[in-house]
From TrEMBL:
Organism name: Rhizobium jaguaris
Membrane-spanning intervals of the chain: 20-39, 51-71, 77-95, 107-128, 134-158, 179-198, 228-246, 320-343, 405-421, 433-454, 460-477, 484-505, 511-533, 577-602, 623-644, 664-694, 706-726
GO molecular function terms attached to this record: transmembrane transporter activity
Primary location class: membrane
Cellular component GO terms held in the UniProt record: plasma membrane
Keyword Cell membrane carried by entry: yes
Keywords in alphabetical order: Cell membrane, Membrane, Plasmid, Transmembrane, Transmembrane helix
Cell location: Cell membrane
Protein's recorded name: ABC transporter permease
InterPro entries linked to this entry: ABC_transp_permease
Length: 751
């Protein structure tokens, strides 16, 4: 028998740093050189390099923690709001105008807060089985609500007291060696994080869990604790960065941390981490952070130009600076996130750099790796369970067994609660329909979201698409003086284009829907602000505003006056948008419940692979569902502008949270496979009535708006937990079965 020839496996891949990091260093140098060319006054100075390193430090510290989360195959969207919340809490604890605590107590309480947020995220995702993007997105909105509520939209400063506590506040200042202390702290955190991830058991467990959680569990790794630990590290890193900001600025504003989750995630992915989990290096994440922060600085600083002004008939050249319009940076950062995620499957996994280097040296390319899709596990992990009791129950029991029964009952209870608290307001017909007008916008968005969630995807961009469509229509009406029909058409085109991008990136490039729509969340919001230069627009033809008016106003506009009676009374309270909403909901409900396409939507969401084996074109189903969601958000945006007779760049904020909560409360499954239009409309009614009740003036007390957003975030988490544990796991049914089995056993013993 001949000797078996052994093939060398080659050198093991480097764990601390590799070729990708070298490429990032080269790209970083070229990018900085480009900054010097376009703006030599700023980037040509040592102060600019120092400012870049200082600003990179805080984002980079958060990126160190995020690397552990993404390597675990999870995601943390709450780091930006955690950063802002911790900074605000520190300000309120420490500032003399608030609680006036000492520095040690303030720091310890902030560290405890960061630990609690990380622990809550970890428990929600691992033990309570809430999808990571839903749990952390909700924490993002809740945290942002707390920030706005604690600051009341105002900055908090404590510079005088800070001067008395110099040891802590020196952390944000330049040291005797000539560089900011934050840079040294960042370097220390990066070195420790890189060593832990690459050279210790913690790192091994992280990569094993992210690579194959089930196999890691079989190997004896406590994967739940590994994932919780990563969320703790992520939150604590955000807490440390917030405390460094507090030390540097000696104050805080309500905008702290806005959009930072986008910057951090993009940094980690650009640094070479895989959105699929199982791969990532801290050094790469730090270099990725430097790239993202530098791009952001180049865009925000702009570049010098020369303008010619005429004074007394004489032309004078004046030095000026060209900067991008409001919202432009958000657009570029959103694009950067999507591009960064696409780098992983099309460059890193295909070894594009190594193959190109082999081609240059005329050597054989490295073996082609598996280039499957990058769909991240999260939403489509299990289908909705059929409610068996609904099939066998009769009468009232049949209704109560429906998944949407809870939303319908809650709607009635909340309406009766409002009637009991303020019968003078609630029973008034015009006030009731005023609540209905607020309901209409959310209900239209919920119609499209029902299809997306039933198909097993998610759309985080609906609020931003609403703003994009509204800003486009307002821009054409106000700036270009277009006719109403033209403005409507252009608004529909802009919103539909956003939906087309969502669908193409999700289905065509096989990105997770929440990543694609998260990118659009920022892109569309940035474009909306860009179009209107960050300003509110108002004042155009009343013909357009008829879309948001009551039917009686429409009749009067065309010279028709209804005679007194029931028809006129109804026309005085029913609006065009309400009629349109019910029309859209009826058509969408019939399609979802009674047509083959509706069956395909639920089949794709219930089990994507099984639906494909059954001959269903799941890509087409998901594509159409995402497009429908964007079109519904677009219609809501066009109506929003008509209803308010103006456009505000903040239009549609938190609507994605409301829409997802509406569908889940209405019986839709967060894991896909189920949804009803009646349930979603009832869920939207629950959210609308909750907001109306919280804003209701009862004996002189009204809930502040920012606390309402916190409350809605809690409702979403509760709704998701009900879906997972009551509907999916049927926990009450299993409890009843256990009690009944115990009772039968007891009877057998006594018998």
């Amino acid at each position: 028998m001949g000797l078996t020839k052994m093939t060398s496996l080659g050198r093991a891949p480097p764990q601390l740093v590799g070729g990708w990091e070298a490429g990032l260093l080269i790209f970083l140098a070229l990018l900085y050189l480009g900054g010097i060319i376009v703006n030599p006054t700023f980037f040509g100075s040592t102060e600019a390099l120092h400012a870049l390193l200082r600003d990179t430090s805080r984002v980079g510290i958060i990126a160190v923690g995020m690397t552990f989360v993404i390597a675990n195959k999870d995601l943390d969207l709450s780091v930006g709001s955690t950063y802002g919340l911790v900074a605000v809490v520190f300000a309120r604890l420490f500032a003399p105008s608030f609680l006036d605590f000492d520095i040690v107590t303030s720091v310890i309480l902030c560290m405890l807060l960061g630990t609690a947020i990380g622990l809550l995220n970890g428990v929600l995702v691992t033990i309570l089985k809430v999808p990571a993007f839903i749990a952390t997105l909700t924490m993002l909105f809740i945290g942002r609500g707390f920030v706005l509520a604690f600051t009341q939209g105002q900055a908090i400063y404590y510079s005088d007291k800070a001067n008395e506590n110099s040891p802590f506040f020196r952390l944000g200042e330049t040291n005797a060696l000539g560089f900011n202390n934050q840079i040294a702290i960042f370097f220390l955190i990066a070195v420790v994080g890189a060593h832990v991830l690459a050279q210790t058991r913690w790192g091994y467990e992280t990569f094993a869990t992210g690579g194959n959680e089930q196999a890691a569990a079989y190997a004896g790794i406590n994967t739940r604790w590994v994932r919780i630990r990563a969320y703790l590290l992520s939150s604590l890193c955000a807490t440390l960065a917030a405390l460094l900001s507090a030390a540097q600025d000696k104050g805080v504003t309500p905008l702290y941390g806005v959009g930072w989750e986008l910057t951090v995630i993009a940094s980690v992915i650009i640094g070479g981490a895989s959105i699929l989990g199982g791969r990532g290096r801290v050094i790469g994440s730090c270099l990725g952070t430097a790239v993202v922060v530098l791009i952001d600085k180049v865009l925000r600083e702009g570049w010098p130009i020369t303008r010619t002004v005429v004074i007394d008939g004489e032309k004078i050249a004046v030095g000026a600076k060209f900067t991008l319009p409001a919202g432009a940076v958000l657009v570029f950062l959103g694009l950067l996130l999507v591009i960064a995620v696409l780098i992983e499957p099309f460059l890193i996994r295909r070894q594009a750099a190594a193959r190109f280097w082999a081609w240059l040296r005329r050597r054989p390319p490295p073996p082609a790796p598996d280039t499957g899709g990058v769909a991240l596990e999260g939403v489509q992990t299990k289908g909705a369970m059929a409610t068996d009791t609904a099939l066998s129950a009769t009468g009232l029991g049949k209704f109560l067994a429906r998944r949407d029964a809870l939303a319908i009952i809650l709607t009635a209870v909340l309406w009766l609660t409002g009637l009991a608290l303020r019968p003078d307001y609630w029973w008034n017909l015009s006030n009731t329909f005023a609540i209905l007008l607020n309901y209409t916008e959310l209900a239209i968005i919920a119609v499209g979201m029902t299809y997306v969630i039933a198909a097993g995807d998610i759309d985080l961009s609906v609020g931003s698409v609403l703003a994009l469509a509204g800003s486009t229509a307002a821009y054409f009406l106000k700036v270009l003086g277009a006719e109403p029909l033209t403005a409507i058409a252009m608004g529909l085109l802009a919103g539909s284009a956003a939906g087309l991008v969502n669908a193409a990136v999700t289905v065509g490039f096989k990105l997770p829907a929440f990543i694609a729509t998260l990118g659009m969340f920022y892109i569309a919001r940035g474009l909306a602000a860009w179009f209107v230069a960050g300003q509110q627009l108002t004042g155009w033809s009343e013909g357009y505003n008829l879309l948001g008016r009551k039917m009686d106003d429409v009749f009067l506009h065309f010279g028709l006056e209804l005679p007194p009676g029931v028809m006129r009374t109804v026309a005085e309270v029913v609006s065009v948008q309400t009629i349109w909403m019910f029309f859209v909901a009826i058509i969408a409900g019939i399609v979802l419940a009674y047509t083959p396409f509706g069956l395909k939507v639920c089949a794709a969401g219930g089990k994507l692979r099984a639906a494909a084996y059954a001959g269903i074109n799941t890509n087409r189903v998901r594509f159409i569902s995402l497009m429908l969601s964007a079109v519904c958000a677009t219609m809501a945006g066009i109506i929003n502008v008509a209803y308010f007779r103006s456009f505000n760049p903040v239009a549609g904020q938190f609507r994605e949270l409301d829409a997802i909560a509406s569908v889940i409360i209405g019986g839709g499954s967060i894991f896909g496979g189920y949804g009803t239009m009646i349930g979603s409309l009832a869920g939207a009614a629950v959210i609308t009535l909750v907001r109306a009740l919280l804003q209701l003036n009862v004996q002189g007390f009204t809930m502040p708006q920012h606390w309402i957003n916190v409350f809605i975030g809690v409702i979403l988490i509760v709704a998701v937990l009900i879906d997972i544990w009551v509907r999916q796991a049927n926990i009450f049914g299993r409890l009843r079965e256990r009690i009944a089995r115990g009772a039968r056993t007891g009877e057998g013993i006594h018998g």
